[in-house]
């Protein structure tokens, strides 16, 4: 039952920082930039949802299904953003409770 494992190399910290495509993750966007982009995307979805609702209200909607999808995407993105905010606030409160 004694089998030798061949072809196993040691991993360095640089190997762990690379993603599947071999791109160095340390070169990617910071947390603040990712958060800002996400908030901008939520804002865009909210604007599209508001446009769809006003089109429905005024009877100018061409495709009711697409309007309903836009409203649904806006609602889900807002819920997700609120959950992320709540988790961040809870994490911050937990850090404040930590005694040094």
Outline of the structure:
The protein is mainly alpha-helical and 100 residues long.
Summarize the helices and strands and which ones pair or pack:
Elements: H1 13-16, H2 31-58, H3 64-97
Helix pairs in contact: 2-3
Helix content: 55-70%
Overall 3D shape:
elongated
N-to-C span: 51 Å
Largest sheet data: none
**Any low-confidence stretches, pLDDT <50, length ≥5?**
none
H/E order of the elements?
HHH
Mean pLDDT: 82
- Number of helices in the DSSP assignment: 3
Strand content: under 5%
What is the number of E strands? 0
Secondary-structure class:
mainly alpha
**Rg of Cα set:** 23 Å
Which short descriptors sum up this protein?
single chain, 100 residues, mainly alpha, 66% helix, elongated
Descriptive account of the structure:
This protein is 66% helix and 0% strand. The model has no long low-confidence stretch (mean pLDDT 82). It has helices at 13-16, 31-58, 64-97. Helix 2 (31-58) runs antiparallel to helix 3. With 100 residues, the chain is an all-alpha fold. The protein contains 3 helices and no strands.
């Amino acid at each position: 039952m004694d089998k030798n494992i061949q072809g196993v190399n040691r991993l360095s910290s640089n190997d762990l920082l690379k993603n599947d495509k071999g791109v160095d993750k340390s070169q990617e966007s910071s947390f603040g930039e990712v958060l800002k982009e996400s908030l901008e995307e939520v804002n865009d979805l909210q604007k599209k949802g508001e446009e769809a609702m006003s089109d429905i209200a005024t009877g100018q909607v061409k495709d009711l299904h697409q309007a309903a999808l836009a409203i649904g995407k806006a609602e889900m993105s807002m819920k997700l953003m609120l959950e992320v905010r709540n988790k961040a606030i809870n994490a911050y409160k937990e850090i404040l409770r930590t005694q040094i």
